[in-house]
Design brief:
The chain is an alpha/beta fold. It has eight helices and eleven strands. The strands form three sheets. It has a seven-stranded parallel beta sheet with strand order 2-1-9-3-4-5-10, sandwiched between helices. Strands 6-8 form a two-stranded parallel sheet. A two-stranded antiparallel sheet has the order 7-11.
Length: 268
């Protein structure tokens, strides 16, 4: 299960939601049940299976967190590393949207990302009004195209309320070990003078912001300490494979969720 799924499911259950959670791996079904969800084994790229799973769950909201990033990091071959995730963000999103529409789902929340996809000009702090990079590096073109697709089709999924959350880079339990390992092994690339800016987001805060959107009555800005989520039925599609916590989620319908950026440099 993905790192955010580990955090998100207990929060949704604690808010009173009845949660159906998906996984590709039958061996992970028991863990989903331990977290309070009803597990369903389904391949996110199988349109028929996705449709059947959503129809059985009868959810009011769908949370799309499907990724496939458990195989380790290969920053030299970025699109290759994200190949299955890119499929889940394109074909998988389309399958899940179609299934949600057929089931009468009212709200659809999808995971996106802010950081490297942003345009590489202007100031270091980007908002939702700043465009994505029109000329991404060759090794990231397919990954950015997949993000563009997801961010285009989800908000356009009327009459469903489509919400895209752009997360910063995760840190926290189960989320940052691979990144820290790259730094320790001096394998994190230093680009230019090493003064690049990253936006980091604690995994629990990402889950909390997502949970608020799942229960929100209408699209709107995410504010710390916002309205308590309403109760209902939901389906979380979450198949997939330290430091002090600082929280300040902010964003909207196609909005960013993160903390003002800090500077990171790979050790020499």
């Amino acid at each position: 299960m993905s790192a955010i799924g580990q955090q998100l499911l207990p929060q949704l259950v604690a808010q009173g939601h009845q949660v159906t959670a998906s996984t590709r791996n039958p061996a992970k079904a028991a863990r989903l049940r331990e977290l309070g969800a009803e597990p369903v084994v389904v391949d996110g790229l199988d349109a028929m299976a996705v449709g059947e799973a959503v129809a059985r769950a009868e959810p009011e909201a769908v949370v799309h967190q499907m990724t496939s990033l458990a195989g380790g990091s290969d920053l030299r071959h970025f699109d290759r590393m994200f190949a299955v995730t890119n499929q889940l963000r394109t074909q998988g999103t389309d399958h899940l949207l179609a299934a949600a529409a057929a089931a009468g789902v009212r709200r659809f929340i999808a995971q996106s990302y802010t950081g490297w996809p942003n345009i590489r000009e202007g100031g270091p702090v980007k908002t939702e009004d700043d465009p994505l990079d029109p000329h991404p590096p060759a090794a990231q073109r397919q990954s950015l195209a997949a993000i563009r697709h997801l961010e285009r089709v989800v908000p356009a999924a009327a009459p469903m309320q489509g919400i895209v959350l752009r997360y910063g880079s995760f840190y926290g339990p189960g989320a940052s070990e691979a990144f820290v390992d790259l730094v320790r092994k001096r394998r994190l690339p230093v680009i230019g003078d090493g003064a690049g800016v990253w936006s980091f987001l604690h995994i629990r805060d990402a889950a909390a912001a997502t949970g608020r959107r799942a229960g929100a009555r209408r699209a709107g800005r995410l504010q710390r300490g916002g309205r308590r989520a309403s109760q209902g039925r939901g389906m979380a599609a979450v198949p997939g494979a330290g430091g002090r916590r600082r929280s300040r989620p902010a964003g909207y319908r196609c909005g960013s969720v993160g903390w003002p950026p800090g500077r990171w440099r790979s050790p020499r």
